[in-house]
Amino acid sequence: MTVRFSFGEDSMVDTFYAIGLVMRVCQSISLLELLHICVGIEPNHLLPRFLQLTERIIILFVVITSQEEVQEKYVVCVLFIFWNLLDMVRYTYSMLSVIGISYAVLTWLSQTLWMPIYPLCVLAEAFAIYQSLPYFDIIWHILHEAAFRLSHLFPIRAENVSHDALYRHVFYLQSPLLRKKRRPPRLSC
């Protein structure tokens, strides 16, 4: 990917078409990392890793994959370089630390590389979202018009359904009999 980045405009535009499938598969497989944390194979905290993976999945599948116009932007190439650089160092360090091998340079990179790259990654993700907003606005406008046309076919309005659901939810939360039966959610991992 770094070679594609250095060859100019045409190669950067074509980045998603060249490695998009591989990135989707790798990011989907990286969800197994949450299972590794829960089982105890990897000694990390669950919530930060969950937030990072959720952010990447949303950016990749919702923002980039769903819009062909966004796939051709330069920010996709930059974002893929940042993600791959971080993951390459982090997964290599984790794999070697699990089997008991330690390299000082790799440990230093793993502990310090994220400091400059994470803010740049967040900026690139925000810029990707910003560049995709006009395309989502067009889709939202089309869906809104279609829903308005279909609303004449159905006698029940969507606003009434949502208000009924809201009232039922509030009644359930405020009912003293139901409050005693409700158990707090269990969060364990």
From TrEMBL:
One of its GO terms (cellular component) is endoplasmic reticulum membrane. Pfam families: PTPLA. GO terms for biological process: fatty acid elongation; sphingolipid biosynthetic process; very long-chain fatty acid biosynthetic process. It is an enzyme of class 4 (lyase). Its main location: endoplasmic reticulum. It catalyses: a very-long-chain (3R)-3-hydroxyacyl-CoA = a very-long-chain (2E)-enoyl-CoA + H2O; (3R)-hydroxyhexadecanoyl-CoA = (2E)-hexadecenoyl-CoA + H2O. Pathway: Lipid metabolism; fatty acid biosynthesis. It is a multi-pass membrane protein. InterPro entries: Tyr_Pase-like_PTPLA (IPR007482). Belongs to the very long-chain fatty acids dehydratase HACD family. This is Very-long-chain (3R)-3-hydroxyacyl-CoA dehydratase. It comes from Lynx canadensis (Canada lynx). The gene is HACD4.
